[in-house]
């Protein structure tokens, strides 16, 4: 019964969707309209100066954009030493769950997903925002039905990075972190390109490109790799452009890594789908 459910502001919390060290995400309903939303609760007492800066960036960016491939921010309010972000609820869950349920996807599906994530990243690029935590868990699907719309979410580690500037904070999720971050080096927006490559690789293979028990082991595996560890049986089925894009996104040297502009112009993303509307 609704009376037994906790309420925050104008919302009734229905279930917990996830969370981290300083935040929690709830599925919630507006008590008057019944609108279903995702409510991100951020504990202000647990925010470091760095995380407070990231939160400011997240709020500023999300409140200024409206794009189908970026999670929508509807409202912000404060209560109980927390700030609450009222966000669009995505019924399809996240891309990590999608990969767990479906396994590796067909190349045409991976291409459609890359185009959508790329469209979202274009908005970040226009605002000089780097995400720094792109991973399947932070890519949400609008629906569980056929042909979902993908939305980039969780900008809790994002920051403004103007052209020619560099960042140095070590952050992100190790399986999707660029090697320059793992090596505690200065970095630019190409760290998001590495993460995008790791997502593409995982879509095609069903597992991340580089794994390990620790960040040190992951970095060692990256450096020891002579070629990407594709699942051998699928390689003959992949378009050469697909393998090329994946390899260029996952270039260890950021100078040689493909830029966002080059990603958008890559021929793999321009392959005609032949009018197929059945989502492969």
UniProtKB/TrEMBL annotation:
The keyword Kinase applies. Signal peptide: none annotated. InterPro entries: Atg1-like (IPR045269), Kinase-like_dom_sf (IPR011009), Prot_kinase_dom (IPR000719), Protein_kinase_ATP_BS (IPR017441), Ser/Thr_kinase_AS (IPR008271). SUPFAM superfamilies: Protein kinase-like (PK-like). ATP binds at residue 40. GO terms for molecular function: ATP binding; protein serine/threonine kinase activity. GO terms for biological process: autophagosome assembly; regulation of autophagy. Residues 11-269 form the Protein kinase domain. CIPK serine-threonine protein kinases interact with CBL proteins. Binding of a CBL protein to the regulatory NAF domain of CIPK protein lead to the activation of the kinase in a calcium-dependent manner. This is Protein kinase domain-containing protein. It comes from Solanum chilense.
